[in-house]
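For the sake of clarity, the format in which proteins appear in this thesis is described at this point. Each number in the token line that follows is a code from a learned vocabulary of backbone shapes. One such record is shown here in full, so that the layout can be seen directly:
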Amino acid sequence: MGPLKITTALDAQNNPGAWVEFGDGQAPVFVTQKHWVGFDFDGTISRTDGTGHFQPPFPLGEPIPEMLATVKSLLSAGITVKIFTARACDPASIPAIQSWTEKHGLGCLGVTNQKDYDLIRFFDDRAIQVVPDQGRSILTALRCVA
């Protein structure tokens, strides 16, 4: 992915935030200071193809540079980023993930395995996006339009 197109601004109620283009050709989304963007850890910002990755002690993978650039672009615009990972089911794993994010220039990010209403976007290698309120995947919807 790489850095996103981001323009800091105020919304109609003078709340600070930023207009973010999360994908090529997508309309910008206004992200306020209360919102956050989630990134899955394994397979999204860190590689899973290292030796023994899926075996105890489940080592943390090497960074994926394009996704680090995406995270850094959000952080530089003042947007909150959290790591959203099943690894957080074990609270003891959180400090290791935070050390990894610090080591790779992202600072000490929040790590969670829970969504809330302020999660505005989520990047993941396993998720399948669906069309809101329609019960079909976005890929199916795109094939119908093409």
